Amino acid sequence: MAAVTNLLQPVELDLESLLIDLRELIGAGHPILQAAAEHLFSAGGKRIRPGIVLLLSRALTNDGELSPRHRRLAEITEMIHTASLVHDDVVDEASTRRGVETVHSRFNYRVAVLAGDFLFAQASWHLANLNNLDVVKLLSRVIMDLADGEVKQGLYRYDPKQTFDDYLEKSYCKTASLIANSAQAVGVLSGVSEEKLKSLYDFGKQLGLAFQVVDDILDFTASEKQLGKPSASDLGSGYLTAPALYALQENPTLSEFIQRRFSLEGDLEKALHLVRESNAITLSRSLAETYASNAYKSIEWVPESDYKKALLDLPEYVLSRLY
Fold first, then answer.
1. Phi, psi of 166, rounded to the nearest 5 degrees
2. How far is Cα 49 from Cα 138, in angstroms, rounded to an integer?
3. In 81, 164, 190, 303, which residue has its Cα 20 to 30 A from 183's Cα atom?
4. What are the distances in angstroms from CA 103 to CA 30, 41, 92, 188, 288?
């Protein structure tokens, strides 16, 4: 399966100019905030979210050309995503992301929180300047969802009584909402029908959920080197994801380890063993495959082009990370 850089190749030049524009948009604000933002945008990353916006934007135009408003929407999407990562890293106390020092490690926690706020505020300002109330509502909803997801994640820590719906709702807020709502916003700017707007939203939602479930499986199956963080770090931190919840249904004794927060020696290793020996990974894979398949079907109506082909390859790319 192609690497994501190959998948995004049809919009490679758009993504390059997006990074240049982002640096200009952040502009001559406060020097430290500017330095923090510069640091973030030069920290690599796959740029999947703005890539999806750009691919959809070009796929839905008659001549494949990109309007300034579609371009700006992709920039706003990346700003919102980056702002959420800064705040995530503060909450998780992560020292690196993508092999680069996090903002709070390089500066301090106060600067990191302010840099995240700064990017959310910048995104909101540029969003308002698109002068499209429907798009403003869609992307404002994302900013609410991101905060909501972070709060929910904190509330459900070490809680074996949380439901699968709780987990999916949190996953939607943290990962899928941005992809779903920005995909729908592309449709709004492109003037597609109500029915097609819904299918664009579904594409983003299903792809985002597939992405999150795959991430959650990898936390149990990938090595530390592949993950860029300690494996099973989610479970150790009390975050119960799809594999842990499936394992709990199969073997309720797992809840004892969770409730005492893996405080006894060997607790975490025993819990991991229970998850890996159960059907949890197989069931989680099947769930991710269902979401990926739904995402694929949601945009079959998009006119044929290299952009559409890249979009249809994305669900398969998400699953390919498991193999």
1. -60, -45
2. 15
3. 164
4. 15, 11, 13, 34, 32
β-bridge mates for residue 322, sequence order: none
Q: Which residue has the tokens 């199969």?
A: 250
Structural domains of the chain in order of their starting residue, each with its CATH number = 4-317 (1.10.600.10)
Say if strands 96-97 and 100-101 run parallel, antiparallel, or are unpaired. antiparallel
Q: Please say whether the beta carbons of 46 and 86 come within 8 A.
A: no
Largest Cα separation within the chain, whole Å, is 63
Give the predicted TM-score (pTM) of the model. Answer: 0.93
Q: How distant is the alpha carbon of residue 116 from its chain centre?
A: 16
CA angle (194, 165, 135) in 5-degree steps? 30
Q: Is 197 helix (H, G, I), strand (E, B) or coil?
A: helix
Query: Which residues of the chain have a pLDDT value below 70?
Result: 1-2, 27-30, 33, 37-45, 97-99, 223-231
| H/E stretch holding 32 | helix 31-41
Amino acid at 163: T
Report the alpha-carbon distance of residue 119 to residue 90 in Å, rounded: 15
Read off the tokens for 141.
Answer: 């909803």
Query: For 100-117, what is each residue's pLDDT tens digit?
Result: 777 787 777 888 888 889
